[in-house]
Write a structure and sequence with these properties.
Elements (H helix, E strand, L loop, with lengths): L1 H38 L4 H13 L2 H26 L7 H13 L8 H30 L3 H23 L1 E2 L2 E5 L20 H18 L1 H11 L1 H6 L4 H24 L18 H11 L4 H23 L4 H33 L7
Antiparallel strand pairs: 1-2
Helix pairs in contact: 1-13, 2-3, 2-12, 3-7, 3-10, 3-11, 3-12, 4-5, 4-6, 4-10, 4-11, 5-6, 5-10, 7-8, 7-10, 7-12, 8-10, 11-12, 11-13, 12-13
């Protein structure tokens, strides 16, 4: 019994420590946010009460928080998978765009409800995966840093999607937008009067799938081993090229699905010529969600709900007299404080790897 407890103790410590660190960091963020509001003459107590009641005080608040969390779960997974593999893939933004465009193409298909949903998700996941292969191949064949290439691909994706909206997927009856997702391909709303749709099952299911893959399969072990110690992984016979490509493809699939659940969810179920609508910014927000969730699929689920609560509760804060700009400042301070512990760990890890990283072309 004693031996079993001794074996479990280190594991329990490793689980409890990040939770405690995140809670302490969150309290620091709340304290700094309260100080900022107090300096500008707003009541922190009333503001935070409105925030938490608006986010989690009733079924409507929970539904709105979860609805906002759905795409963030998927884009956070894009960044988390790459970090676990020892990479900084910040291309989720562009992959979300191409995923959304791929999902919109199902408007030209006549199918029954279930198959229409499945086809849209598959198209989007494949589009995101294919788009992620560009930076992956540049890294493997030419050694181009993934941060540079994914930023470039984000901009290429943005303008390519604007072209598709205006010239290829355009609605023949309304030139300012694309064709709309048909009703047979829209996710049903779970709680009437809210934006929460059945797409939440897609996000949670994919997060659990990634968790199982990374922590309970040989392939996932190889990906994490390559991220923890590239040199040791290389000498252990793990292919650096394969793990890199796999991490980008899985991340691209997650981001592509994020684009699909946005346009296949609540209206507007299309993209406009003037902008990419609700898809914009989700890839970059996902990076913060991943950091707060300690780049772990299960942690990301809770982190995304927290982010969703900040968004839903932020509207309630405005109702008690806190300006929108102040709401964003306070939310940003809280997020930054909670992300700091993981940022410190990741940057320390990458500083060490920069000195001893094995070449990508290794075995």
């Amino acid at each position: 019994m004693k031996a079993a407890l001794q074996r479990l103790l280190p594991r329990a410590r490793s689980l409890v420590r990040p939770i405690v660190e995140s809670l302490l960091a969150g309290l620091v963020g709340l304290g700094v946010g309260a100080l900022i509001m107090w300096i500008w003459g707003h009541s922190p107590l009333r503001a935070y009460q409105a925030l938490f009641v608006g986010a989690f005080g009733d079924a409507y608040g929970w539904a709105e928080s979860l609805a906002y969390a759905v795409p963030l779960i998927l884009t956070a997974l894009t960044f988390a998978i790459s970090v676990r593999a020892g990479m900084f893939n910040i291309g989720a933004e562009g992959q979300v765009y191409v995923g959304a465009m791929a999902a919109i193409t199902i408007a030209y298909l006549k199918m029954t409800t279930g198959w229409h949903h499945l086809t849209g998700l598959v198209f989007a996941a494949l589009a995101g995966a294919v788009w992620s292969l560009g930076p992956a191949l540049l890294k493997i064949t030419r050694g181009v840093h993934e941060v540079i290439s994914t930023i470039m691909f984000n901009w290429i994706s943005r303008w390519m999607c604007f072209y598709l909206i205006a010239n290829v997927l355009v609605d023949p009856r309304r030139a300012e937008k694309t064709v709309s997702i048909p009703r047979t391909a829209r996710f049903p709303i779970l709680i009437p009067g809210t934006d929460l749709t059945a797409s939440i099952y897609v996000a949670v299911g994919f997060a659990l799938l990634i968790y199982f893959l990374l922590w309970h399969t040989v392939t996932g072990y190889e990906v994490r081993a390559a991220g923890l110690s590239p040199t040791a992984a290389r000498y252990g016979g793990i292919s650096a090229k394969r793990t890199l490509a796999l991490s980008f493809v899985l991340g691209g699939m997650a981001a592509g699905l994020a684009g699909a659940v946005i346009v296949m969810g609540v209206p507007p179920t299309y993209a406009e010529v003037t902008g990419l609508g609700y898809t914009m910014g989700k890839g970059f927000d996902g990076m913060a969600v991943a950091m707060v969730g300690r780049v772990h699929p299960l942690g990301i689920l809770f982190s995304a709900i927290f982010f969703g609560g900040l968004s839903a509760g932020g509207r309630a804060m405005q109702g008690v007299g806190v300006p929108l700009e102040m709401v964003r400042i306070v939310s940003g301070v809280i997020i930054l404080a909670m992300a700091v512990p993981e940022l410190v760990r990741v940057f320390r890890l990458f500083r060490v790897f920069r000195l001893r990283r094995a070449p990508v072309g290794g075995a």
